[in-house]
Amino acid sequence: MNRLRTRVLVTWLTAVGGTSWAAAPSHSGLATGVGSSLVQIIDSDMREDHADISVQFSCSVHYLGNTPLSHGVSTRITLRLGPDCGALLGAVAPEFPLVGGGEDLVTGARVEQTVPGEVALEISWARELDFVMAPTGNSLGLRVRLLGVGGRKPKVTVLEPEISSGYAVNLDSSREKFAAGALAAAAAGLEAQAYVSETDIEGEHWYRLRAGPFATKTEAERVLKIALVNYPHAWVAVNDEQTDLALIEHASAPTPAAREPVDPPLPDTERAKILNDARTALDRHQYPEAVELLSRLLRQPEYPARADAQELLGLARERAGQMAQAKGEYEAYLERYPDRAGAERVRARLQALINASLTPRSAGEFGSARNDRWSMAGSAALGYQFANAQTVSLGTSTSTTAVNAALVYGDLLVRDRGPRYDFTGRVDAGYTQNIVTTAGGSQDRTTAAFIEGTDRTLGLTGRAGRQVLANQGVIGLFDGLFVGYQVNSNLSVSAAGGYPDYTSYSAFSSQQQFETLSTEYGMFQQALIFDAYLFNETDLGQTDRRSVGFQTRLMRPGASAVVLVDYDVFFQALNSATLIGNLKVGQWALGIDADHRHSPLLEINNALIGQSAADLRSMELTFTPSQIKQLAIDRTAISDTFVVSANRPLGERWQLMVDLATLQLGGTQASGGVAATPSTGLDKNANIQLAGSSLVQGSDLHIFGVRFDDSPAYRSTTLTWDARFVLPGAWRFGPRFSVEQLNDPGLGGKQMLYLPEVRGDWTSRRSVFEVVGGYQLQEQQALQQLPGPAQTTALQQRSLYMSLTYRLRF
Question: Please, are residues 183 and 209 in contact by the beta-carbon 8 Å criterion?
C-alpha cells in the first residue's frame, strides 16, 4: 500500500455540537474514531481568591498563544492539534462545551477551527480579570487561572453596571480631535452611548469616535446597521480599548421618556400592520427587526395602541440582551402610562431586571440566574451525518458510503449554593446509531457523571464519579474520588484516586487504578505559583507508572511563563519537560512553546504495542518482569516540539498571525519480535494568517492563510480562505476553501487536494441549528511498481459530506 498522505472525507465530519462518534477505546487515551469531539469536558473550581478553569481534550494539543494575553473578560486560545488527533486533523466543527463547576463566574466556551490542524478555544467570564494559563504535563489538558475573583473589585470601565466593554462600534477615526458636537450627534442619532477614545497605531496617535460599549455582539451589530447610513466606514471592535472608558469623554443617548413624536401620523391600518409585523419578528427571534419596527411606532403621535408598542419594545430589547435599554423602555412606559392595564406587568418585568443586575449570572453557558439557591443549565441535541466517497484508479471506479449515522446527546448541570455548603451535579452523555457499520458499531459515551460538595467554612471539596483533573499527572478521565483542602489563601492540598477512563467511550474497569497527591502554593497575589504532585498507577497489581512532577507559573502584566516537568521514578527517566512563555512588546504578542517528552507517556503498558498478548498477565507467560519493562522503553519514542508565534494588529481592521514550528518524533528499537521504527526526521512548518474584519459587510471576518510544511518524507503548501458573514434572521454563513499541493518522493509524483466547504448556523437564545456541507477532490500521481518499467498512474478521490445538528439549550 503506497504512502498516501490522505485526508479521508470523514475527517471533516467531526465534533458537531460537541458529539462523539463511536471509537474503539485506546490505552493512549486518544480519540481515534470518526468525529470525536476535541473538548471532552470543562470545569471551574472556585477558591478564596482565584478560580481554575480546567479543560480536557481528547488528543494532544500544543499551545500557540492567546488574545488578550493576561487581562480581559475572555481570551481566545490558539491551539495546534497533535499528530495523535487523527480524524480531527481534517476539520473541527464548532463545539459549545458546557462549563461545569460550582460558581457563577465562567459564562461560556466555544471551539472553532481556524485552519486545518489548528483551532481556537474562546472562554469568557463574567467580568474583567487578570489570568494566566498552562497546559498539563501530558498535553491533553489546559488550565486557565482567574486571579482576584474574591475580595478584589473589578475595574470599572463603563457607566452602566450591566454593560461590559467587550464590543463597540467604531464610527470614525481621525488624527485630529473631532469637532464639537460630533459626540452628542452620534449618541442622539444612534440612540446609544457614544465616546471618544485614543490609541497609538504604528507610531501615530488616533482619535476614535465610537458607540458603546455593548455587552453582546448582537447589540453591536444592530447599532452598526444603523450607523452605516451616516458612517459608511463603521465597523465592530472587540476588546481593543487601551484606556479606562470611565475616564474619557462620553455622551449618553436620550432616554426613551425624552423622545417626542417626530414622524407624521400614519393611517391606523398602517400602524396595525407595523405592530403585527413587529410581533411576528419577536416570535421568530428577529430582535433587530422588531426593535426597528417598534421604534418607528414610538415616533408616532399618541394613539390607542402606542402603549402596546412601548411595552413590546422593552420586551424585544430584553430578549436581545439589551438590559439597560430594556429598563429604559419599561420606565418610559410607566411614566407615560402608569394607569394602563399593562402597567403592573411592566412593573414586574422592570423589577426582575433590577434584581438580575444585582445577582451573579449562571456559570453554565446557557443557564440563567435564579433568585433561589438552586440553578440548572444544560442542553439536548439531535444530529445526522452522511458522507459518500468515490475512488477512480486505472479506469476503475468504486463508491462507498463512509458515514451514515444519527445521534442523540445531552448534558445537565445542577447547582445549589447555600450559606456554607455548595452542591454540584453533572451528567454529559450521548448515543450514536451508526447505520453504516464500517464507521464502527453503535455506541454510547459518558464524558461526565459526578456529584460534588463543598464546605466553604472548612475549605473542603469532594467529588465522586466520572470526572477529570487538569493536573496531578492524571491521564484523561477517571472514575473515582477527588478531595481538596484549602489550607489558607496561598496553600492548598488535594488527593485523588480511582480507575482511568482514557476516552468517554471507556466502560468502567478496575484493571488499572491510580492514586495521586498534590500541593499548590501561590505567592505575590498568585503572580507566582508552585505545583507539585506524586502519582502512582498500577495495572493488574503491577506498577504501570510512578512519577513526580512540578509546575511553576509566573505572571506579570503583559508577560507569563510556565515550566512543567514530569519524572518517572519507576523507569528513572524524564517523562516530559515543557516551557511556555508569552510576552507583550508594543503592538506585538510573542509566544514560545518548547516541549520534550516520551510519546506516548512512558508506562509499562507500552510493552503491549505490537504484541499479540491482550494484557500484561498474558505477556508474563513469555517475558520476565525486567524484560517487559525494557520492552516498554523500546516501544516508546521521544518527541521534540518547538513553536514560536507572533501576532499584532495592522491598522484598525487587520490582524497578522505568524507561527514557526519544528517537530521530530524519534525512532524505536527492535525487540521482543517487534520491528524497529525509524525517526520521522525534523518536520519544519510555517503558518501565516491575515485576519480582516468588516471588509465586505459590517462585522464580517476573513482569514487568509498560507502554510508551508517541509519534512524528510514530503513537502506541502496549503492556501486557505475562511470567512464569516452575518445574515438576517440570526443566521451566520461561513464559506471556506483550501487547496494543498503535496510532493512526496515515495509516491513518485504529487498530490493535490481541493476542499470547498460551506457552514451555516442559526442561533437563538435557547437553540442552535448547524449545517455543514462540502466537497473534497483529491488528485494523486503515484509511481506504481508493476512488472516491466515503472509507471506513473493517476488516482482520484471524490468525497461529498454533510452534517445537520439541532441543539436545544436550557
Answer: yes
Q: For 320-341, b where at least 16 C-beta lie within 10 A, e where not — what string? A: bbbbbbbbbbbbbbbeebeebe
Cell 460538595 locates to 453
Q: Contact 48/88 with Cβ under 8 angstroms?
A: no
What is the per-residue burial (b if ≥16 Cβ within 10 Å, else e) of 272-294?
eebbeebbebbeebbbbbbbbbb
What is the β-pairing status of strands 167-174 and 204-214? Answer: antiparallel
Q: Is 684 helix (H, G, I), strand (E, B) or coil?
A: strand
Task: Write the pLDDT tens digit of every residue in 166-207.
Answer: 678 889 888 888 886 788 788 777 877 788 888 776 667 888
C-alpha cell at 775: 466537497
Q: Any idea what DSSP says for residue 703?
A: E
Q: How many CB atoms lie within 10 A of CB 750?
A: 16
Q: What pLDDT digit, counting tens, does each position of 556-582 carry?
A: 777 888 898 999 999 999 999 989 888
- Is the backbone of residue 498 left (phi > 0), alpha (psi -120 to 50) or beta? left
Q: Residue for cell digits 516540539?
A: 641
Question: CA distances (Å), 637 to each of 117, 293, 598, 612, 676, in order?
Answer: 22, 65, 6, 20, 11
Of residues 565, 564, 557, 549, the one with CA closest to residue 582: 557
Q: Is the pLDDT of residue 360 over 80?
A: no
d(CA 192, CA 169): 10
Q: Omega into 94 within 30° of 0, i.e. cis? A: no
Amino acid at the residue 601: L
Containing 278, the helix (H) or strand (E) segment is helix 268-283
- Length, in residues, of the chain: 810
Task: State the Cα–Cα distance between residues 324 and 55, nearest whole angstrom.
Answer: 34
Whole-number Å distance between alpha carbons of 334 and 228 = 33
Domains parsed from the chain with CATH numbers: 9-152+362-600+636-767+778-809 (no CATH), 167-251 (3.30.70)
